């Protein structure tokens, strides 16, 4: 892979370049501007930030070298994420599925025509969402039931998807459907690139306990998808979906653990604000949290280094995610405890403000995103026990005793 | 010496200590330490060592933690580092190959007035076998002969059977000017350097012990059958082991990260914080693993012949060694709060 960038592939030179750029370009006061706003404002600010990042080449470091900003090594991508966290820049939530999941899936599995059709559009700001989870297929993805029936040159889709991040704004959907229910659950899945404007698609945002509505349900009522929008062969959906899920390669958790570390002063701030800065019991709790946060950072970092060297083991990623989810929970619980009664008076939240916004009850409730989504803590524990510790898998056949 | 060579050396230490058997005695393991040159790991090459620094030393501390070997490797390493820092090349060679010098594993309470040392030092390993002890008092770091007038010591049996700790009482002990390693600001810097190393060494011991105990606990669960199935099949137990695994991996990663954060200037505030974070986290995780391991073993873990209690007791002691006053968490919080 060749580097077309000004820094010639040197991660530390890139760090200085990115840091300087972020200093000039992170919208000042974006947190205040996104507090108590509606989704329309959020979408607008995400688009502005996306446009800036794309133009600077920092939105697509993981794309191949023929694309603007592409051809960066994993070490360089890590630098960009670390600097974005350090600068407390907004996360590019609205475009994450497009830039990672959709782009990497199309690059790896798509036909030339599909690449031409979809990749430039992503850079122009087309929003994608993911249609994997269903009401009865959350952590257990193989039990997807949304049906696709082949009729001539179209698939006809019926069923329901859920937990689709910002699907209410999406132009396209990465859709995992069942084309065959006869064999092993993984075998009958097929992967489609759905145009969200197709007749019969209904999107309904889910009102969350935090007051936000980041996720949506998607309903399919005799939705016709051309065969040309299939990625991979019929029945290959499971393998394609694995590529989708592997596309961010541990970078997100490098960013999020770093953000958590940079947010530790928010705990100090709330202690001062509440007049309990010298409370020894709270200081002890804070003192015990600090090395846990450091350890989560070190785990995410080490995992990415293993990815760069190609030495990661099955189950390593689960350790990083579990450690992050547990530490984030402790972090937000401590903030909430310190905020006390004052924290219980409802205040506006920051849209897209990350996991440690300083609205502590909001942050605490929001932390469940990480212990449930993307394979719950319980799933991660199964994987760690079975893959890393060599403990036996769950028996296939069971009866109630 | 390259990283690969260090790994090789570490592996050979693991093998030697493994062959010596779990919790092998001091009389069996100390001669191996001297003979195999393990005390030279961190010594700079120009002083005749292997030049692996604190990270190299910690690789060995991990192996001692893993094997529960009773040799007083940690205090000996502290004394040798002090000799290196003071540029005493001939002492380095002596301490690393023949003469055992010990050092307290907890902060002593000593005062120096009119050139005379008084007070107490506790948690001094294997003092009966040492010629000298390394002590930090006010603005002086010195070696004190254990046979000198005014130095009394007595063994304090501990729950941890893998270490032998002594209390020292000093009254009016004349300092031998030839044994003073540093005075004034240099002494304060050396004391900080030694305290940071002790924190890292205890963290490494804890990481090694926690990893070994978790491995053997999982192995036990895989073998032990009840209700017609291996215990390892029960999800309630799998999940507890997975949580412990994530914590042990976190402590390991944190140890490596803090070692690189501390860098070469071990007397710096950054190194102090890094060592405190590593020590606090690793020892907390070790204690947690040991607590759970005993429960997961069931009745067999309550028997003296089983290995569980040896790890448990070492883990519990480790939490209380190092800087006094149970202040690791408070100090870390204070450092964060100090930033406006």
Automatic annotation (TrEMBL), chain A:
Keywords: FAD, Flavoprotein, Oxidoreductase. Residues 235-389 form the Acyl-CoA dehydrogenase/oxidase C-terminal domain. GO terms for molecular function: flavin adenine dinucleotide binding; oxidoreductase activity, acting on the CH-CH group of donors. One of its GO terms (cellular component) is plasma membrane. Residues 129-223 form the Acyl-CoA oxidase/dehydrogenase middle domain. Belongs to the acyl-CoA dehydrogenase family. This is Acyl-CoA dehydrogenase. It comes from Solimonas fluminis.
């Amino acid at each position: 892979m060749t580097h077309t960038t000004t820094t010639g592939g040197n991660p530390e030179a890139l760090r200085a370049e990115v840091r300087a750029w972020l200093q000039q370009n992170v919208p000042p006061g974006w947190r205040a501007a996104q507090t108590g706003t509606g989704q329309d404002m959020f979408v607008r600010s995400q688009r502005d930030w996306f446009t800036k990042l794309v133009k600077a080449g920092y939105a697509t470091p993981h794309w191949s070298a023929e694309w603007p900003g592409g051809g960066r090594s994993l070490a360089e991508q890590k630098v960009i994420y670390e600097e974005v966290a350090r600068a407390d820049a907004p996360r590019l939530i609205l475009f994450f599925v497009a830039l990672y999941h959709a782009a990497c899936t199309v690059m790896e599995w798509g036909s030339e025509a599909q690449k031409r059709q979809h990749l430039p559009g992503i850079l122009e700001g087309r929003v994608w969402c993911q249609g994997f989870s269903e009401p009865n297929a959350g952590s257990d993805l193989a039990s997807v039931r949304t049906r696709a029936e082949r009729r001539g040159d179209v698939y006809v889709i019926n069923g329901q998807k859920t937990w689709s991040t910002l699907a209410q704004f999406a132009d396209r959907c990465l859709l995992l459907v069942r084309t065959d229910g006869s064999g092993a659950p993984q075998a009958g899945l097929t992967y489609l690139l759905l145009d969200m404007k197709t007749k019969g698609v209904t999107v309904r945002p889910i009102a969350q306990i935090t007051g936000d509505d980041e996720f949506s349900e998607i309903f399919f009522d005799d939705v016709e998808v051309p065969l040309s929008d299939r990625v991979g062969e019929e029945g290959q959906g499971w393998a394609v979906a694995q590529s989708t899920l592997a596309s961010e390669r541990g970078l997100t958790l490098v960013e999020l653990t770093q953000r958590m570390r940079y947010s530790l002063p928010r705990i100090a701030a709330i202690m001062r604000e509440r007049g309990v800065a010298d409370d020894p019991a709270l200081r002890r709790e804070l003192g015990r949290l600090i090395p846990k946060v450091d350890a989560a950072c070190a785990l995410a970092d080490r995992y990415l280094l293993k990815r760069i060297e190609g030495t990661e083991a099955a189950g390593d990623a689960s350790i990083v995610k579990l450690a992050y989810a547990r530490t984030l929970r402790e972090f937000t619980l401590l903030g909430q405890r310190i905020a006390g009664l004052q924290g219980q008076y409802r205040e506006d939240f920051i849209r897209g403000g990350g996991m440690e916004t300083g609205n502590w009850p909001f942050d605490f409730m929001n932390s469940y995103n990480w212990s449930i989504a993307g394979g719950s803590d319980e799933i991660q524990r199964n994987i760690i026990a079975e893959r890393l510790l060599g403990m036996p898998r769950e028996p296939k056949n069971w009866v109630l005793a | 010496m390259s990283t690969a060579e260090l790994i090789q050396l570490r592996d050979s230490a693991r093998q030697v200590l493994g062959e010596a058997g779990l919790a092998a005695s001091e009389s069996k393991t100390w001669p191996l330490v001297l003979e195999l040159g393990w005390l030279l790991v961190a010594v700079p090459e120009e002083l005749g060592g292997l030049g692996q620094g604190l990270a190299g030393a910690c690789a060995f501390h991990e192996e001692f933690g893993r094997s529960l070997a009773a040799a007083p490797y940690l205090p000996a390493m502290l004394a040798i580092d002090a000799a290196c820092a003071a540029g005493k090349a001939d002492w380095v060679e002596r301490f690393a190959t023949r003469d055992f010098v010990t050092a307290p594993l907890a902060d002593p309470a000593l005062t120096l007035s009119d050139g005379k040392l008084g007070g107490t030092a506790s948690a001094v390993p294997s003092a009966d076998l040492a010629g000298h002890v390394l002590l930090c008092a006010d603005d002086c770091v010195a070696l004190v002969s254990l046979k000198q007038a005014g130095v009394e010591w007595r063994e304090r049996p501990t729950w941890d059977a893998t270490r032998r700790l002594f209390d020292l009482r000093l009254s009016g002990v004349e300092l031998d000017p030839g044994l003073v390693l540093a005075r004034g600001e240099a002494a304060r810097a050396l004391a900080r350097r030694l305290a940071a190393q002790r924190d890292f060494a205890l963290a490494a011991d804890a990481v090694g012990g926690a990893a070994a105990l978790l491995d053997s606990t999982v192995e036990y669960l895989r073998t032990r059958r009840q209700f017609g199935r291996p215990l390892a099949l029960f999800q309630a137990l799998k999940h507890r082991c997975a949580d412990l695994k994530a914590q042990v991996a976190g402590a390991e990663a944190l140890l490596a990260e803090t070692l690189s954060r501390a860098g070469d200037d071990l007397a710096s505030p950054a190194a102090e914080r890094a060592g405190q974070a590593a020590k606090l986290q690793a020892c907390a995780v070790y204690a947690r693993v040991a607590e759970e391991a005993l429960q997961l073993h069931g009745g067999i873990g309550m028997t003296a012949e089983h290995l569980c209690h040896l790890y448990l007791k070492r883990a519990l002691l480790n939490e209380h060694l190092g800087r006094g006053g149970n202040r690791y968490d408070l100090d870390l919080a204070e450092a964060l709060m100090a930033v406006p």
